[in-house]
Amino acid sequence: MSRFANLADKPKTKPARVVHMPETEAEDAAVSSSISGSRPNPVPSSRVGRKAIAAYFSPEMSVAMHICARKHGLSLQELMAEAFDDVLRKYGQSPLGE
Amino acid sequence: MTIIAIVSQKGGSGKTTLSVNLAAAAEAAGAVALIIDTDPQATASQWGAWRTYKAPEVIDSAPPRIQAKVDAAKAQGATLIVIDTPPHADSAASRAVEVADLVLIPCRPSAFDLAAIKTTVSLVRLFDKPAYVVFTAGPPYALRMYEEAVELVRGFGVEACPYILPDRAVYRHASAAGASVIEFEPEGKATAEITALHMWAIAHVNMSTTVHEGV
């Protein structure tokens, strides 16, 4: 008898599903157009038409950024957007205000 | 309700082993224990699936939902929650530390592993949570080595838990059977060790809660 199964993110009986991450824009579009059926969309709506910017930092920097975001009630994305806008201003370019 | 986060930025330090067996020790002591698995590798969830909902249960959680799940579990009667976190995942680790009453940092007593706990310690400090390093998977008898490891840990600004979980084959046998060491070998040394660690953890949480209430 399960006490907490209702709290799980996904049903445990199903095998782990490998989510295909599109790597190119063409593939991205192909994946987006192929999900008209009942299959869940592998591309979150918040990412459609947007580009990922990734970089490698020390574990300390990563922790500091996550903590800073949490302390100010922001997502990491929002914190990074703020930082990018700040650096654009610093170098005399227009912030994008994302 | 007591919430214990198991955090270590280093892989293979025994986070999941500590999580499931600590929850099992709590369950054996009469608690309603729950393991929240935030690791995308879902090792603890796999263990939970093998034992088909036998207590302690394992549920998964994405980092942003940890707080909500803790609240829901409390409402459903959970008295002890162990949060297992993935290595190299600052989001899951910081959310887990944020909700925890006590943070346990499992670590092998080796120089490489000890050096790697610095990041975890800084994370715990930022949230100002009580944290202890738990030596795992080391030799059962190596007094001198553990003394040196304790000193090294203190140098990082964190204390070591007085109870260690040395390497024992029963952890592998029990995990493969979807069991805790307590169920697998009730009279074994590993059972005595995890039981002692659990009692220490509970006493520690209760003590620090009382102290804070008194202030």
Helix content of chain B: 40-55%
End-to-end Cα distance of chain B: 21 Å
What fraction of residues of chain A sit in β-strands?
Answer: under 5%
Question: SSE string of chain A, helix = H, strand = E?
Answer: HHH
| SSE order of chain B, one letter for each helix or strand | EHEHEHEHEHHEHEHHH
Q: For the report, how would you describe the main beta sheet of chain A? A: none
Shape of chain A: extended
Using the alpha-carbon principal axes, give the shape of chain B.
globular
List segments of chain B where confidence is low: pLDDT < 50 over at least 5 consecutive residues: none
**Structural class assignment of chain A:** mainly alpha
The neighbouring-strand order within the major sheet of chain B is 3-2-4-1-5-6-7
Radius of gyration of chain B: 16 Å
Could you report the average pLDDT of chain A, rounded to the nearest whole number?
Answer: 75
Q: Of all protein chain pairs, which has the greatest interface, and how many residues does each chain bring to it?
A: A-B, 20 and 33 residues
Give me the secondary-structure category of chain B: alpha/beta
> Count the helices of chain B. How many?
10
Can you offer a commentary on this structure?
The complex is a heterodimer of chains A (about 100) and B (about 220). With about 100 residues, chain A is mainly alpha-helical. Helix content of chain A is about 40%, strand content about 0%. Chain A has helices spanning about 25-35, 60-70, 75-90. Chain A is extended, with a radius of gyration of 19 Å. With about 220 residues, chain B is of the alpha/beta class. Helices cover about 50% and strands about 15% of the residues of chain B. Chain B has 10 helices and 7 strands. Chain B has helices at about 15-30, 45-50, 65-75, 90-100, 110-115, 115-125, 145-155, 170-175, 180-185, 190-215, and strands at about 1-5, 35, 55-60, 80-85, 100-105, 130-135, 160. A 7-stranded parallel beta sheet of chain B has the order 3-2-4-1-5-6-7, sandwiched between helices. In chain B, helix 1 (about 15-30) crosses helix 10 (about 190-215). The mean pLDDT of chain B is about 90.
